[in-house]
């Protein structure tokens, strides 16, 4: 259904129509996406708003190293556009009122209680956004779902938008579009600049064209796909489910390689040459992390079950179950190789982010693996080039050792769960029993194993869950090596 008002009719001649865009949610998706948009569309003002004042302050920081998100290339764009046509603020009401187009880019975590707990998405933030938009928007506004949402959420948003309008804005009208984000963290800027495709789902072709005209500024027409609203919402969930499924598939075969003497790198190379399979997303590892894969698959499982398709739900749920099993497998192997006990042993953890080139730790395999190792009594020395000590502490729900020492209560509670974050100096490895590589940061592939081996306590182990170390260099340094998916080392 389409809604026209004067403003919309006046602006029907596309291209120059949208002048003011608001994005609600200055997170990993909203921040980089609006930064690239503002760089490519100099005639449009982009206001990114967020309820989190600390986050907005960080986005406005003069020191670009303090931006709340680490993403290669992002700082340069923010420096170029911020204060010109890109603004970060907490002025939700004002920015909504001024906007021709509003992106909803807030988080949609998995529900922790009530119906669908553990699987369905918690839409409370999306709903609250819709209510705010309905309250403050003026004239005609195009509302774009950027957050990954369950299929048919657009319908709910539309209902809220139309039914919660205050009297003074009773003539305001809305169109809803779905424009899912396919960027991957660590490569977000390139993904935004050169996407494989841009998907715009909606009912009103004019509204679709408005958003199309923004993307047209830098994306070839043939890459911009139009669909109906539900197809677009479902495509996002499906793309993430397919990608995650590939990771679980290769990790399952990795475990089989370890048991049989095969090498997963060789298997990946062999199957990846088949053009029907392709070479991407078949790297064996500790398990997938990130804010999307698990959440989106569980969402799909919930939907399938809701629509009476339990076999479909079970099929996709197995991808998540395999992933949890694979993460747990890592800590079990470490325990077994270190003679069945970790009590008092020092373990160096290299990498805490869920993948390289991001400071994001959401669903990072490192969280579960480190928790299990701490549970077994290990003393963890953690390094990550971009993840803060505070973030690690939040994720582990255990304060670092230096804070415990200062606080008698913490000292008592966590006396057997010691960890701290360190810089990667040579001393970092002093008396360490094992090194566990959990994130594929390039620096970890360039370590000098000869120097490091002299610092460790023998017999020392290197556990490479990302397949990045040079086997020969590690072994020649007299260290034991375990590598995910590699049955040739047993
Ligand atoms: C989020 C969703 O998790 C993902 O499903 C979707 O595809 C894109 O948006 P992300 O940007 O990574 O991903 O989330 P996050 O970094 O948590 O940012 C969301 C931001 O929204 C937070 O800064 C939060 O403070 C803000 N927010 C949340 C609001 O401003 N208002 C709200 O009502 C709720
Ligand atoms: C994913 C999707 O790729 C992106 O399109 C969507 O918008 C958001 O979710 P992201 O989670 O940022 O992006 O990173 P991605 O590169 O997909 O990696 C996800 C996880 O899978 C990481 O933990 C990564 O280490 C792991 N992975 C990926 C593997 O273990 N092996 C692979 O071959 C690829």
Write up what this structure looks like.
Helix 2 crosses helix 4 (74-81). This protein is α/β, with parallel strands linked by helices. The model is unreliable at 1-16 (pLDDT under 50). An eight-stranded mixed sheet has the order 3-2-1-4-5-6-7-8, with helices on both faces. A six-stranded parallel sheet has the order 11-10-9-12-13-14. The chain is built from 19 helices and 14 strands. The termini are far apart. Bound molecules: uridine-5'-diphosphate-xylopyranose (2 copies). Residues 24-30, 50-52, 55, 105-108, 125, 128-129, 146-148, 181, 291-292 line the site of one uridine-5'-diphosphate-xylopyranose.
> How many strand segments?
14
Q: Kindly name the structural category.
A: alpha/beta
Distance between the termini: 63 Å
**Share of helix, binned:** 40-55%
Characterize the main sheet: 8 strands, mixed
Spatially, the strands of the biggest sheet line up as 3-2-1-4-5-6-7-8
Write the topology of this structure.
Elements: H1 6-10, E1 20-24, H2 30-40, E2 45-49, H3 53-59, H4 74-81, E3 86-89, H5 92-98, E4 101-104, H6 124-136, E5 140-145, H7 153-163, E6 173-178, H8 188-193, E7 198-202, H9 205-215, E8 224-227, H10 229-260, H11 264-272, H12 293-306, H13 310-337, E9 346-350, H14 365-375, E10 379-383, H15 389-396, H16 401-406, H17 408-413, E11 419-421, E12 434-437, H18 449-453, E13 461-464, H19 471-476, E14 480-483
Parallel strand pairs: 1-2, 1-4, 2-3, 4-5, 5-6, 7-8, 9-10, 9-12, 10-11, 12-13, 13-14
Antiparallel strand pairs: 6-7
Brief account:
The protein is α/β, with parallel strands linked by helices and 490 residues long. The chain is built from 19 helices and 14 strands.
């Amino acid at each position: 259904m389409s809604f026209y008002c004067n403003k919309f009719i006046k602006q029907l001649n596309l291209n120059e129509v949208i002048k003011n865009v608001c994005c609600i949610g200055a997170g990993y998706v909203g921040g980089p996406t609006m930064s690239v948009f503002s760089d490519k569309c100099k005639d449009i003002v982009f206001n990114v708003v967020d309820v989190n004042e600390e986050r907005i302050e960080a986005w406005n920081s003069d020191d670009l190293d303090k931006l709340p998100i680490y993403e290669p290339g992002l700082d340069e764009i923010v420096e170029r556009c911020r204060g010109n046509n890109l603004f970060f603020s907490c002025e939700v009401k004002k920015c909504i009122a001024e906007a021709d187009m509003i992106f909803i880019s807030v988080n949609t975590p998995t529900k922790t209680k009530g119906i669908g707990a553990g699987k369905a998405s918690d839409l409370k933030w999306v709903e609250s956004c819709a209510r705010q938009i309905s309250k403050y928007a003026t004239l005609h506004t195009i509302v774009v779902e950027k957050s990954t949402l369950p299929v048919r959420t657009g319908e709910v948003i539309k209902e809220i938008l139309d039914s919660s309008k205050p009297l003074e804005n009773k003539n305001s009208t809305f169109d809803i579009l779905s424009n899912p984000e396919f960027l991957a963290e660590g490569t977000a800027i390139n993904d935004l600049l050169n996407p494989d495709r841009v998907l715009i789902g909606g009912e009103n072709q004019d509204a679709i064209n408005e958003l199309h005209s923004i993307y047209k500024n830098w994306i070839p027409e043939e890459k911009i796909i139009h669909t109906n609203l539900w197809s677009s919402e479902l495509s996002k969930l499906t793309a993430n489910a397919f990608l995650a499924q590939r990771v679980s598939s290769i990790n399952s075969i990795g475990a089989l390689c370890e048991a049989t003497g095969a090498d997963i790198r060789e298997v990946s190379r062999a199957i990846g040459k088949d053009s029907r399979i392709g070479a991407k997303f078949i790297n064996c590892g500790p398990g997938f992390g990130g804010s999307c894969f698990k959440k989106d698959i569980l969402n799909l499982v919930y939907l399938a079950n809701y629509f009476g398709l339990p076999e479909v739900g079970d099929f996709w749920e197995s991808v998540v179950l395999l992933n949890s099993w694979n993460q747990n497998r890592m800590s079990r192997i470490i325990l077994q190789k270190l003679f069945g006990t970790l009590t008092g042993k020092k373990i160096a953890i290299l990498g805490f982010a869920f993948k390289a080139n991001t400071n994001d730790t959401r669903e990072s395999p490192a969280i579960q693996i480190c928790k299990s190792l701490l549970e077994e009594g290990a003393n963890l020395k953690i390094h990550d080039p971009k993840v803060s000590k505070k973030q690690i502490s939040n994720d582990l729900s255990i304060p670092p050792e230096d804070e415990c020492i200062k606080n008698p209560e913490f000292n008592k509670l966590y006396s057997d769960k010691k960890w701290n974050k360190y810089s990667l100096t040579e001393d970092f490895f002093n008396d360490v029993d094992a090194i566990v590589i959990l994130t594929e940061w390039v620096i970890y592939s360039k370590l000098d194993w000869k120097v490091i081996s002299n610092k460790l306590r023998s017999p020392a182990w290197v556990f490479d869950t990302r397949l990045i170390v040079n086997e020969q260099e590690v072994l020649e340094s007299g260290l034991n090596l375990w590598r995910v998916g590699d049955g040739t080392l047993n």
